[in-house]
Amino acid sequence: MKRVTFSHSPIPYLFVLPQIAIIAVFFLWPSFEAIQLSFYLEDPWGLSNEFVWFENYQTIFEDPEYVGTLIATLIFSLSVTFLSLGLAMLLAVQVDGLLRGGGTYRPLITWAYAIAPAVAGLVARFLFSPQIGPIYDLLNPDGEPPWFEPALDSIDAWVVITSGAVWRQVSVNFIFLLAGLQSIPRSVLEASRIDNPSGFSRFWSVTFPLLAPTLFFLMVINFSYAFFETFAIIDTVFPFGPPAGAASLVYKVYVDGFKGADLGGSSAQSVVLMLFVLALTVVQFRYLEKKIHY
Amino acid sequence: MKFRNLIASVLLATFVVFTPSAWAQTEIQWWHAMEGALGETVNRIARDYNASQSTYKLTPVYKGGYEDTMTAGIAAFRAKQQPHIIQIFDAGAATIINAKGAVFPVQDLLSKHGVGFDANNYISGVRSFYADSSGKMVGMPFNSSTPVMYYNKNAFQKAGLTLPPATWEDFEMRVAPALKDAGYVPLAQSHSPWIFSENFHSRHNLPMATNNNGFGGLETKILYNNPGMVTHWSKLKEWQDKGFYKYYGRAWGDNQNGFVNQEVGIWLGSSGSFGGLKNTAKFPFGTTYLPYWHAVTNKPTNTFIGGAALFAMSGHSDAEYKGVANFFEYLTKPEVQFMWHRETGYVAITNAAYELAKSEGYYKDNPDAEIGILQLNLPGGDHSKGYQLGFYVQVREVMYEEYDKLFAGKQDAKTALANIEDGANKLLVKFARTYN
User: Fold this and answer.
1) Interface ipTM > 0.85
2) Residues of A with Cβ-Cβ distance to B100 under 8 angstroms
3) Which residues of chain A neighbour B78 with C-beta distances below 8 Å?
4) What is residue B9's predicted lDDT score, i.e. its pLDDT?
5) What are B220-231's pLDDT values in tens digits?
6) Which residue in B432, B306, B322 sits closest to B375, CA to CA?
7) Domains of chain A (ranges plus CATH)?
């Protein structure tokens, strides 16, 4: 058999070079530094260090607080992913079915994505503030003793963080899902309408499977969003730190490394975080993608 | 016409930038963590200093909160871009003082490039906090405050009370029930580690850690799980359940707001909160000493200073260090200290400045502004000079976690304090290894 080879021009490489450079400088290099630091006990000023093998890792996993944070973050990320996908799906299906007025609803639902996570956090902070928050008042109609106390109770705190995170993420999911819905061939939908009069079962048997590739992509994106980017929301809702049990993994990396100047421990945590998200993504691709037909 | 104006302004700008005097000035960078009105006062100090002489140009740069400023300084030091002066807070003191080679101790700096350093010029409460294990002053105390008690005089009147509580026993038996009956939350406070843990030890002259509260070296163990603390924290939980104490969470402002909104009768905050309260509290309030447990001691001692100090970072030229020394001397002048004290509510750190404030009659008009200094100047004990503990920011984090769980009813005081000791001691061991 004859091998077909094409002569390559170097120009395409030139085009990807800026992107590769950015990834190298802002992702690969810091990751490498973090991996290296996680094996050292080093004073923050860089005056002395000692190679300690896996001691930093051992320390974090012996800490019951850390294991608790890991579990809480996992639950939080799952909730954010499913709530924001569910809400976005509901909105997208409703807007897709509109004959008129879609042009008004689309920007109304989408604009929240233009908001930075830190600002989403501020909005959540105001809405749930014990002094001026309307939602806080709504949840505590009787006053004393308050039933809903995000500053004291970790579950209430997670509710606030989750709603801030979901609120912002619904809009990006909405854009993708609406585009996905609109790319489903009309003929398929019309054919199914003849076969099955129930809109609800039509959705689950026809529309949903056809949307699956989009949903899968969004799931991966949302998961890493919930893991990494929600830091800003926690930090703005609780500038002095969330109550015990309401910190996420990435927030703990920040507290120990940035505030506490414990470089080795914080680096070990961020390596664990990287591996964890990597593993989750691999699992998603391995098991979920097989169920999807493109 | 417009074009000519433009040329003229460009020429003028060039002239201003390149005037000989500006050219010859040595620039001193000062990184600080003072925001809002405090930052304005810092800028004013810098402006006044620059106007007072022409050899040095001091440039203050706001770097965010205390932790952010320390982290920025650490990152800059690692990149060899460190400023000349950096402001580091009490909980970060061990991190910078133990970093051999990162700082130029202020005592050496002033002996070499200035008129020398005499610790006796400083009020007793600030003398030892920023010193190293040999007693040498490493940091220059700057913004210093201490926890004090504020009480709402209207609330006291309504409850039929005249005097604020001097002891916690007095609070529990006399003050709290009366305030509660009058419809107030009797007590709130804004910083559990600082007010109810660190200063609990200084007020009762109890050791907070081994090794002379950590000043003696790095192999230190924390001593929080002591009978005094167990009593205090068990009582706090009991008071919370009885409605004598309300915990509004970790945020400083949420607890202070309770007092400002007249929901709370007594609030424990910083002596530096005085200026802000004067503006926001729409009721007469009084200031007094932090209460103590009579059962623990009948000789209550002074409290620790909180706040931050200025450190000269290493790696600069002698000419620049002369400027730093020159500025430090300017900063400790009585007039400058008095201005800082008056504008911000932080205490004046030199005896001369304190005398100046007294002689100008400042405390006659504002007796509350003196409470912080008076409390710092109370007779001290062996354990009330300060503390120096590594990774203390994270130790405080551990405290918050455990106290949160106590107030949420998930554990008792004894368990909380045992967990704090355990977590803190692990961090201290790690810190000692990191710095050896």
Assistant:
1) no
2) 47
3) 45-46
4) 57
5) 999 999 999 999
6) B306
7) 60-291 (1.10.3720.10)
